[in-house]
Amino acid sequence: MKSETIAIHAGYEVDPTTKAVAVPIYQTVAYAFDSADHGAALFDLEVEGFRYSRIGNPTTAVLERRVAALEGGVDALSVSTGQAALNYAVLNVSQLGSNIVSVPQLYGTTYTLFAHILPGQGVEVRFAESDHPTAIERLIDDKTRAVFCESVGNPAGNICDIEALARVAHAHGVPLIVDNTVATPILLRPIEYGADIVVHSLTKFMGGHGTTLGGIIVDGGKFAWREHDERFPMFNRPDASYHGLVYTERFKEAAYTARCRSVYQRTTGAVLSPLSAFLLLQGIETVALRVERHVENARRVAECLRADHRVDWVNYAGFAESPYHALAQKYFGGRACSLLTFGVKGGFEAGKKFYDALRLVKRLVNMGDAKSLACHPASTTHRQMTVDEQRKAGVTPETIRLSIGIEHIDDIVDDLDQALHAACPERRSLLAAG
Ligand SMILES: *Cc1c(COP(=O)(O)O)cnc(C)c1O
Fold first, then answer.
1. N or C end of the chain, less CB within 10 A?
2. Could you read off the pLDDT of 22-40 as tens digits, one per residue?
């Protein structure tokens, strides 16, 4: 089936006992065993079923099957936030002294996790000079356990060449982990281009209404953990923390998710609540429709800003002059994402005035909401970084990041126009004419 249909139906059949058509919220911690033997079989993962909601829950399981189907994966693990998903996704392939190699254009908190938190746990993260595959390849060595990128960098808006990065990673026997939050599986399915693990902050476009935090790790099921036993013994050797379970034997192509659930979710518990899973599922039902409108509105906004005298620069992959235009054509069929950045003439001060004058467009740090949102990364999401680190992440002092919502385009443009007027009162508006 196509994504529009999968988003509405995958992972759930009408409940056999109640005939409920909407996904029920299974607000329960535990599940009764038929007998001691049944309980033992569940704990040995020999029979399918639920035992305790830290490890699995019927409502979150629907979400996991649905997002796995949308991404074309074999299995998925839902967690409490996108950050928890990133943490688990990396730890699941790491060991003390190992490293991962990452592109430099990252979401601010992911950068902090990689640069400051994981090293304290014995996992080094090597940041490449750019998102170019040769820059990545240069940093891979025998201690490397994964290559990491955001398919579309937040907020840099760079588009990673997933196919080329997967080729480089696989040539060195390591998986490619992709944060696909900005693109969504509606615009891009990284697994089809060779990615092995796909991570999402469901908080953004997938949930889509700015109500609910959530994250998910999708397993492409194709990486040959067994063939690379020297790097990934944790999937192929008996797990002492789970009475000798061998994940690749028991779970075959879904070994990665099974270990992530049995080790990290079970023992550190960044669990998504059933109510949150339900709310995220409501959002996902309309994600295809929303993304279409987000994309169309963003194209109109980008064109208006580009034509406006008061705007210094616009970074939007849908423009022919964007360095990422060819990749936008290849991966998104020209449908560039609805996240764009721009700078107002007059630098930091004018940018601040613009930002403070917004009325409809909300000032906050979020994206992918039905509402249009604006963020000033240098003073918020990327505040902890040095100016040099900011520049590498695609942030300059005046950068404004817009996440274009699904309101009527005229209302969005009107608000941007009046805010530009507040920032640059002496300059004539072209924007309203666009
Ligand atoms: C928001 C975001 C995250 C973090 O997700 P949370 O759900 O807020 O923890 C990670 N990666 C990207 C690209 C994001 O935009």
1. N
2. 999 999 999 999 999 999 9
Band (pLDDT 50/70/90 cuts) for residue 385 is confident
**Ligand 1: distance of its center to the CA of 211 in Å?**
14
Residue 154 CA: which ligand 1 atom is closest? 13
**Cβ-proximal residues to 222 (8 Å cutoff; 6+ apart), any chain:** 191, 196, 253
Task: Using a pLDDT cut of 70, give the percent of the chain over it.
Answer: 99
Residue-range domains of the chain with CATH: 3-283 (3.40.640.10), 286-423 (3.90.1150.10)
Q: What is the pLDDT of residue 432?
A: 63
Q: Is 322 in the pocket of ligand 1 (CB under 6 A)?
A: no
Residue with tokens 């305790």, as numbered in its chain: 52
User: What's the confidence (pLDDT) of residue 319?
Assistant: 95
Rounded CA separation 274/395 (Å) = 37
Whose C-alpha lies nearest to ligand 1, atom 6?
Answer: 82
Instruction: Mean pLDDT check: name the lowest of 140-144, 336-340, 392-396.
Output: 392-396
Token code pair at residue 36: 């001691």
Query: Is the C-beta atom of 403 inside 6 A of ligand 1?
Result: no
Residue 304 has pLDDT above 90, yes or no: yes
Going by alpha carbons, the residue nearest to atom 8 of ligand 1 is 82
pLDDT digits (tens, 9 = 90+) for 227-283: 999 999 999 999 998 889 999 999 999 999 999 999 999 999 999 999 999 999 999
CA 417 to centroid of ligand 1, rounded, Å:
29
Q: Find the 266 Cα to ligand 1 centroid distance in Å.
A: 22
